Amino acid sequence: MRKYLFICLLALAACMGSCTYPTYHNTYITEDSKFNKKTVDLVVAQDKWTFDETVNQFYCHFDVEELTEQVYNYGEVSVSHEYNSGKNNAYQVALPETTYKMEEEVDTDGKPTGNKFYYQQHLDYAYGVGFIEVFCTISDFYYEEGWTPDPMLFRLQMSY
Predict the structure, then answer these.
(1) What is this structure's pTM?
(2) CA distance 66 to 128
(3) How far apart are the C-alpha atoms of 42 and 149, rounded to whole Å?
(4) Could you tell me the sign of the dihedral formed by the alpha carbons of 43, 46, 52, 55, in that order?
(5) Which 3 state secondary structure label does DSSP give 17?
(6) List of residues 6+ apart from 42 with CB closer than 8 A
(7) Which of 5, 97, 102, 142 registers the highest number of CB atoms within 10 A of its CB?
(8) Where are the beta strands (DSSP E) in 3-151?
(9) Phi and psi (nearest 5°) for 82?
């Protein structure tokens, strides 16, 4: 019995010796390394949303000089949607964010018809060196003429 246990342990040790571990490149840790953080408010007025017909969604482009190559390659970047900005009850929701919406149909006189339409609004973002873009997509991709997303405040938070 000990013989079989010894052989199993030997085989296990051989397997573990053949494992490869991840290698990390460009990792520089020195005693004088320090942690940096930065928050940038990204304000989108309602008339600043741009519609992209190719992907059927709205977006807003921001040039952000703080998003350097160093931050892009070695930092952490996150974006949150802030509600009730500047008030005691302000709060943030990290992107991507999906909210559930309802619109009530109105007739030509502007009176409610009683018909309700439910949809989802999805917010997301992408970034690169020197810029960030925030996207707003409606679940059914149906945008009434003249409709744009509401004004919004996004908080870009970087740690590097």
Answers:
(1) 0.73
(2) 11
(3) 15
(4) positive
(5) helix
(6) 60, 62, 64, 79, 132, 134, 153, 154, 155, 156
(7) 97
(8) 37-44, 50-52, 57-63, 76-83, 91-94, 97-106, 112-128, 131-138
(9) -100, 135
Q: Which pair of tokens denotes residue 138?
A: 């409606």
Q: Copy the structure tokens of residue 106.
A: 């109105």
Q: Tell me the one-letter amino acid at 6.
A: F
Question: pLDDT tens across 32-75, in order?
Answer: 567 789 999 999 999 999 999 999 999 999 999 999 999 999 99
Taking Cα atoms as reference points, which of 90, 92, 142 lies closest to residue 119? 142
CA distance 124 to 105: 28
- Tell me the per-residue pLDDT of 77-86, one tens digit each, with 9 for 90 and over: 999 999 999 9
Strand partners, 131: 63, 128
Q: Token match 């439910």: residue?
A: 118
Average pLDDT over residues 113-117: 88
Q: Facing residues of 97 across strands?
A: 123
